[in-house]
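Structure, all two chains, one model.
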Amino acid sequence: MFAYILRRIVATIPVMAIVALFVFSLLYLAPGDPAAIIAGDQASPADVERIRESLGLDRPFVVRFGEWVWHVLQGDLGQSIFTNLPVTHMIAQRVEPTLSLMVLTLVFSVVVAVPMGVVAAWKQGTWIDRVVMLLAVFGFSVPVFVVGYLMAYAFALQLEWLPVQGYTPIANGIWPWLSNLILPVLTLGGAFIALIARITRATMLEVLSQDYVRTAKAKGVSQAPILFVHALKNASVPIITVIGLGVAGLIGGAVVTESVFAIPGVGRLVVDAILRRDYPIIQGVVLIFSFVYVLVNLCVDLMYTVFDPRIRY
Amino acid sequence: MSITYNGTGGVAADLPDVLPPVKKRGRVLTFIRRNPTLSAGGILLGLIVFMAIAAPILGTVDPTAIAPARRTRVPSALYWFGTDMLGRDVYSRTLYGARVSLIVGFAVAFLSSIIGMLIGVCAGYIRLVDTIIMRVMDGLMSIPSILLAIALMALTRGSVQNVVIAITVAEIPRVTRLVRGVVLSLREQPYVEAAVASGTRTPAVIFKHILPNTLAPIMVQATFICASAMITEAILSFIGAGTPPIIPSWGNIMAEGRALWQVKGYIVFFPAVFLSLTVLAVNLLGDGLRDMLDPRLAKRL
């Protein structure tokens, strides 16, 4: 067990190395010569050359990559071209809204989607099943910002139940924080709920046709324990796998949701950085989000052993 | 040699009289009845493709014509979808915008399927490169695809071509994984072993025996990639990293309408509805295609 965890952690290293190589190439290939920018308009070619040497920009790719990785491992992602602040500092300032949004969405989606999928599988072929599957297709098809604007229009502008846009830190109280996040969470959750509901239904259908479910029915176990204890427990591995993979979509969706609802999070930071061509920030955000994604899926892999003790490594 | 009954003294000779005459239903109608999802998606997508191609003759004006005198008009008989803050006709822009989404969707689906298929077959069939290819794909897949596309777009100028390339790169790993999985299971099939044993050369085995069998799952996957590429394009344009603002794409129209959405919601609303309908059509087509080609595929995708 311990050896397995260790092996799994070691296996993520080459993946992260490839991500790092890609992200570094991004800055390496970025248009614009940093030396020329720092030197300014008045500098002679010799000045630019001197600055390039002092920054170490004339050294080969591999050396610079190695140095960059060394800095990243020490928590240094460079400086923003625009504000000259450290990238890690700028990201740290924006983490709270993004983390709140994503964690709430994750919890909300799982709580809504899993029962939806279970009921759809239980009532297979009935109108309940059809409605759930129809909702799932719509959830996939309606892009995140479309849901966002419709929700904001209905619940914030017309009904005035919730604030239209913005974010209140959790330190200012739970309700102000939550009321600002309800619409973004519903928005971001749409596609995620569709994804989880679909896989839950498909896996449950398979499990419900197993012999032990029939046995449980035959010995008189009532419906709810059969569905949620006997069947769902055995269907959990594919479901958590899909939830883990779906986090990628959640990250992409967060970027858009933060733009729609004017939430000052990491997604907003990267959108602003694109408009300003602030490459170190784009690089840092891509690297950190990818790292989170890999980490989430590592946890999912490790959770298999908890949810399904038959899986031994 | 065939056996014929002459109708006299045969065991089952006079049966046809008892059966009701077979109704000759139209082939198209039968197909629609058997594949409702596929047909609904196909018809809807067909309408949208027609709309995009026939945009110039559907009562549109120049979608880029600026007219400050008629800014932000609400939808009316004259301006069906209203006008935006530069006085451009939203109806015309929405119809022309369909072209960008469809081109991006189809081009990405086509390119990533072809490239992903080639890489996937190599990985599945040639053991030596398998580990290297799959590690690289794992790495690419650990960057959320929208972020990957954003990062690539940050390197270049916004153009439809660059958007297609950026989204294609982000989608290739998914196709590669799928194809590799199919190839790995196909290469153990008896008919492939038989082909190898009878001296068929490797390229012939790949092109004649392996590739044709990967087509069904790839086609289904391609429809889903098409749908997700259209959404990604709209997202990229929406956050200002996609097609240049001169080109009327749905993402651009929404990005421009964003500043006014609380008062002039229709500018965002119309392209949003069309985008959703198009993506829905492609998704329905994909679901239907999957059910038609192989119901068991549902588990794999």
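The CA atoms of residues 173 and 179 of chain A lie 10 Å apart.
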